[in-house]
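My convention is simple: the sequence line spells out the residues, with the fold written below as integer tokens. I include a record here:
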Amino acid sequence: MPRKSLIVRVLQWYWRRTRSLTMGAQAVIIDQNNRVLLVRHTYRPGWHFPGGGVEANETVKTALIREIREEAGIIPSGEPELLGIYGNFSSFPSDHIALYLIRNWSQPVIPKPNREIAEHRFYDLDKLPSDIQEAARRRLGEIFQGHAQDAMW
């Protein structure tokens, strides 16, 4: 497992001491060919669903819409469907992730790689990258293969 950067460790220390709960929002975005959108960050290994943290005075859905637009240029055409809220305690104590499904969307602008997102790409479900985050792989199994939903990320 790769070592966490100093910045990540400092932020985790800060969040653990100033927040009783942290919340994130991520999306499973499916295109018209039933492919799933994944992003690769510059600061952690593997491929992940797009999304990020909920900021102060921001709803979970507002954070989701902001994050997927920033990371992939995606704008939902309808209401994102809440799939579940998962505990992510291996990353932070009391961390939770709200996971949404989005099938109807537009992408008026395709963002270029930046300091946060190295790339984003749609993948066929049977051709996922070998280094996809394990939690993302499990969520896709729950959605598309009928696996039992696990409350832990």
Remarks:
- DSSP finds three helices and nine strands in the chain.
